[in-house]
Amino acid sequence: MSVSVDIRAQVGGFSLEAAFDAPGSVALLGASGAGKTLALRALAGLLHPHAGRIALDGQVLFDAAAGVDVPTRARRLGYVFQDYALFPHLSVEANIAYGLRGRSPQATRARVGEVAGLLGIGELLARRPAQLSGGQRQRVALGRALAPEPDALLLDEPFAALDAPVRAELVAGFRTLQERTGVPTVLVTHDAAEAYLLARDVVVLDAGEVLQAGTREQVFGAPASPVVARLVGVSNVLSGTLTRVDGTEALVEAAGLGVRAPAAGLAPGAPVTVGLRPGGLDARPAEGAQANATLAADLRAGLRGGPVALRLDAGPVLTVDLGPGSLPWTGPALPARWRVQARPGAGMVWPGSPAPSHGLDASKGASTPYPER
Amino acid sequence: MDWVALRISLQVALTATALAVLVGVPLAWALARWRGRSREAASALVLAPMVLPPTVLGYYLLLAVGRGSWVGGALETLFGANLVFTWAGAALAAFVAATPFLVRTAQAGFESVDPSFAEAARTLGRGEWSIFFTVTLPLAWRPVAAGTALALARALGEFGATVMVAGSIPGRTQTMALAVYEAVQQGRASDAQALALTLTLVGVGLLAAVGIASRRVVRR
Question: What ipTM was estimated for this complex?
Answer without folding.
Answer: 0.82
